[in-house]
Amino acid sequence: MPSQKAPGVAMLALLVGCAVGPSTRVTPTPAAPLASRAVTAAPPAARQFLDSLTRVRVAEHADTGAALWRPRALTVDAARDLAWLDVMQDTQLVALVNTAVTNNRDVQAAVARVREYRALVGVARADLYPRVDVVASASVNKVSFGGLAPSRFDALRITGELQWELDFWGRVRRQTEAAGFDRRAHEEDHRAVVLTLVSDVATAYLALKEVDENLRIADETLGSRQATLGLAQRRFAQGVISELDVRQFESEVARSATTVAIFTRQRVEIENQLSVLLGREPEAIPRGRALEQAVQAVAVPESLPGALVVRRPDVLRAQSDWQAATARIGVAIGNRMPTFFVTGTYGTQRPDFDGLFSSRGEVFALQGGVSVPVFHGGRLVNQERAARARADQARANYEQTVLIALGEASNALSGVRLTRDQIVTQQTQAQALRRALALAQQRYESGIASYLEVLDAQRQLFDAELSLVQVQREYLVATVQLYKALGGTWNEARGGTG
């Protein structure tokens, strides 16, 4: 007899173990290594000139070994363990980011959404198990059977009731699987919120450092022009120059003072912007190392593995959406299959409390059944078609997200290289203009040159120094954008990526 039951038991185990619908396993889209297109995109003559300037800068920093001129190699494992803002070696920036991740309201809302979807996984999984309820009731009844006179009776009833849908086709398991992918998608949303916040804090902090440098340059320029004005006033008193020259120098001093006021206002506005990101009221923001020191400390790669971009939160989010949509195809197919169920009741019933929990009041019922969908007006078949269409949409969205990620990573990598080239040219220009200003001042003090030569040299140097600070900030921002393009996340405990 046991041998006759064995095939049935094996078949039952096979049915319970299967799950209808396509597999939700996804093979990430392969991506070729990414290399900066800045070298090949530039005209050959311009590239040769830029490389020659770079070699000069490398020679100048041979003693200090500035990281700016030593691009690092980057592997998948190295990127996973890299604390990506630590490349700037600014502990104050790291502290600000940790504060923002802890206090920012958008991050807190994202964490709450993750908790919500984790709970919804439990809601979906609950359908795998029997549902048991305890029901207590009291009733007054009057019934009539056939031609007999109506009879009245009271009933006190306490029962445990069982309802269980056997998941033969895996419909509930597919439903639970889809909920799990939804949860994972929102976990990636949380990563994306944190990643964007870290990027915004770093970008605003670098803008603040740029304004600090601009303000320093403007203040030094103001002092220099005031000194030049003093010299012009003395020369005017001696009858060497005209009043027109003096008024021109006064105009330049006023212009410099206006620039100082503009940069001061910008500094306050950026500090207020950073305070909002940090989740606190507007206040002064502490500074770390100087902008130029951060630039010299940064070592970024010339190329990177294409596999890095598929770890980005937006890519993983799109992948989870695709997997969830695929799992829901199984749910739709399961809805078209016969449903096997078990129901049962066990408890006690008496007309009063006397003997309510004795064996005399025992009542029970056990029922097994099957429900076969026969005609639903095309509802079920169209639900499956819609589920398959949604899965196709999710797949296309995933593939498009990967392409966008590759494009952003390539842009960021090229941006790092090109802004480094700009730093070389701007440093060369600023050095040349500093020397030109010194010569113009010597010529003016000796009476060889006019005030226009000095003014022109001052203006050109001022603009060149501001441009150098701007491109230094852009280089560091490009570094931030590069690691954001790689999908870095912020771990508060480590102060870095994982």
Name the features.
single chain; 498 residues; alpha+beta; Outer membrane efflux proteins (OEP); two-stranded antiparallel ribbon; 12 helices; 11% strand; disordered N terminus
Tell me what you see in this structure.
By secondary structure, the chain is α+β, with helices and mostly antiparallel strands. The chain has one domain (17-132, 166-339, 380-485): Outer membrane efflux proteins (OEP) (Up-down Bundle). The protein has helices at 2-17, 38-41, 44-60, 76-81, 91-103, 105-125, 171-237, 243-277, 291-297, 313-335, 379-445, 451-485, and strands at 34-35, 131-143, 151-166, 303-304, 339-350, 362-371. The strands form 2 sheets. The protein has a 4-stranded antiparallel β-sheet with strand order 2-3-5-6, with no helix packed on it. The protein has a two-stranded antiparallel ribbon with strand order 1-4. Helix 7 packs antiparallel against helix 8 and helix 11 runs antiparallel to helix 12. The longest helix is centred in the middle third of the chain and has 67 residues, at 171-237. The protein is elongated and about 140 Å long. Mean pLDDT is 81; it is low at 1-16, 73-82 and 490-498.
